[in-house]
């Protein structure tokens, strides 16, 4: 996967609609702004090592064991994880891709996962 493909995966996720909780009056404008910010945070995808999962009963730990995750966007110590086999996203945090912990929630909604 390339950075361009990562950006396409993010945009495709947003195009499907989602449940990202927002409280702004103009939801569409806010989704557009958040999408632009997330796309701008896209990085060259890298293999990720998930050391722990905070929400253990979410099933993410099992998915990561079956579908080697990538990280495709970054802001500080927050990383957007991606499971290419199931096309789902998750939020991870840590100093670099080889040493991450995941929040545990995962879905096809890139914005919802990115916002935690």
UniProtKB/TrEMBL annotation:
**Official protein name in the record:** Uncharacterized protein
